[in-house]
Structure formats: C-alpha cells, structure tokens
TrEMBL record:
Protein name: Hydrolase or metal-binding protein
Any one GO MF annotation of this record: hydrolase activity
Region (Disordered): 272-299
Alphabetical keyword list: Hydrolase
Length: 299
C-alpha cells in the first residue's frame, strides 16, 4: 500500500441537494429541495446524472426525489461518516488543516504537523475560513450490482452532520452493531427557524426504510448478518481494512477532487453575493442575518 495515500471506499457516484451555477460571472452554490444522483463525470452544464437517478425518480412516480433507499458499508459509525473541521487553500485548492476540535493535522513547509485544534471559532490560524465538513458513503439500494460501490454525500451543514451522527450512533446501539445490515433510507427534511424568515432549511436524515418499523429493520439485519456469516462474508475484516485505509494518509480528499469541493462548499463570492441585496444593506444587522441564513440554506 502506498504510504501517505488515504484509501477511501470505492465511489461510483455523488448524492447532492444542490448544484453550482454561474451568476454574474461568478460560480455559486444553488440550493435545491430534492436529491440528485450524479456520476463522477462533469460536463459543460455540471455533473452528469447517474442512471440510478432516473430509476429512482420513476419509482417516486413524478414526486420530487426526497428519499433514497440505502445500506451502509461498515458497522463502525465513524467509518461511514467522517466529519472534520476543514480548511482549504482557496488558491491551490489543497487541504491545509483538518481537525476534530482537539487535535489537527496541518500542512506546513516541513510536512504534516500534529497540533492542538481549538475549533473554527477560536482558531487564529484559520481566521474564520475553517468549517465543518463531512463525507457519508452509502450503497444505494441493496448493492445487488456492486456491493462495495458507494455514493458519497458531501456536506458542510451542521444540521445534516449532527443528525447523521446521532442516527448512526443510535442505529448501531439499537441493532447490536449491525449497521451494515440495516435496511435504511436517506430522507430530505426541511425546517424553519426564527432566523430563516420562514424559508425552509433542508438537511439530510437517515431513517429505516419506508414501511418498516425499527424492530422489523433490526430483525432483517440479524437475518442478513446470519446469511453473510454463513457465506463466509467477514464484516469485521472489512471494517478493519477500511480503518487501515483511512489511517494511511493525512487528508482524505484527492487533489483532483478538492477544487470541486472548494467551489461548492467554500466559495469566496458567496458571502458577498448573499448580503449585497437592495432589501438588506450589508452594513445592517438584518442584512448580515439574512446573509447568514442564505449561506445556511445553500449548505
């Protein structure tokens, strides 16, 4: 295995709830109220749709795609969802510092240094440019065609990160650690706050599949676990291989993927475009709050 190269789950597509659009000569993230499944190929108009996107929309019978049946690859919650405080160099697109609120790995002239991490709000090095960033890998459907081929959902939404982390921990505990066998689905939810002026903020949740209770899902998970064990499938070894792969390098994102991540989640122009509106001057408190809300909605 090449040292210094993080070995991540095989990715065959992306799951997003928005896209990057060009407006007034600037490429900015645009919110959406449904899921989109794309391939890993980008065209002139953005990411090309994955064939599963059309299939799921047909199954939704004309409704917006707000639920996706999934299974997880690993029993360990931390392997399925990796969340960090991340700082990217907007000039080169490379990751500069990744931390968890206690320790961080920071790129320097001498190489990668392990340092204390005070979190984005108190970090003098980041100067406010660092924020939470998470990746969730899931198998869409039951993985009949590719059991290890995953779709990745990338997000900087605190609502999504907090909800997914809680769900994974609870499902792991209630199923006896059988996360990889549970029949689940990603679900898009919306909520409004006093700061959103009635505008819904969308985030991603993880629930048992429609038509099943938690007890039924756990029963199915136990049955599937027994079938896998009987066939010789070794989930413990798979989790260990994944853990070793993540530990093999300092930063998860490949250099070829980082520019798209920075463009979608860390655009320099977003703040300027969000607060500079006729109804809400940038200097006013209302303008600043509205700008913050719009950034949250687009996250």
């Amino acid at each position: 295995m090449l040292k210094g190269l993080v070995i991540t789950p095989p990715v065959i597509g992306r799951i997003s709830i928005g896209r990057v659009v060009e407006r007034n000569g600037k490429r900015l993230p645009e919110k959406d109220d449904q899921f989109t499944l794309t391939s890993q190929v980008q065209g002139c108009d953005g990411w090309l749709l994955h064939p599963l996107d059309e299939k799921l929309r047909k199954e939704a019978e004309g409704q917006k795609l707000r639920a996706i049946p999934v299974r997880l690859l690993f029993n360990d919650p931390a392997l399925n969802l990796r969340a960090d405080y991340s700082l990217f160099d907007r000039t080169t697109g490379r990751p500069v510092c990744v931390g968890n609120g206690e320790t961080c790995r920071r790129m320097s002239k001498e190489g990668v240094a392990n340092l204390p991490c005070p979190g984005p709000g108190a970090c003098a090095f980041a100067q406010g440019a660092c924020k939470a960033y998470a990746r969730l890998n899931v198998v869409v459907g039951d993985g009949d065609e590719d059991a290890l081929g995953s779709f990745v959902l990338r997000t900087t939404s605190y609502n999504t990160i907090r909800t997914l982390a809680a769900r994974l921990a609870y499902f792991s505990a209630s199923s006896g650690g059988l996360l990889a066998c549970l029949p689940l689905e990603l679900k898009l939810r919306g909520k409004s706050t006093t700061m959103s002026y009635g505008t819904p903020i969308y985030y991603v949740d993880l629930v048992v599949r429609s038509g099943l209770t938690l007890e039924q899902a756990v029963t199915q998970a136990r049955e599937l676990d027994e079938q896998r064990r009987a066939s010789g499938f070794n989930q413990v070894a798979l989790d260990k291989a994944a853990n070793d792969g993540f530990a093999n390098g300092a930063f998860e994102e490949l250099e070829e993927d980082v520019p798209a991540v920075v463009e979608e989640f860390y655009p320099v122009a977003t703040q300027e475009a969000a607060v500079d509106t006729p109804e809400a001057p940038p200097s006013s408190l209302r303008g600043k709050l509205k700008g913050k809300v719009e950034r949250l909605v687009s996250a």
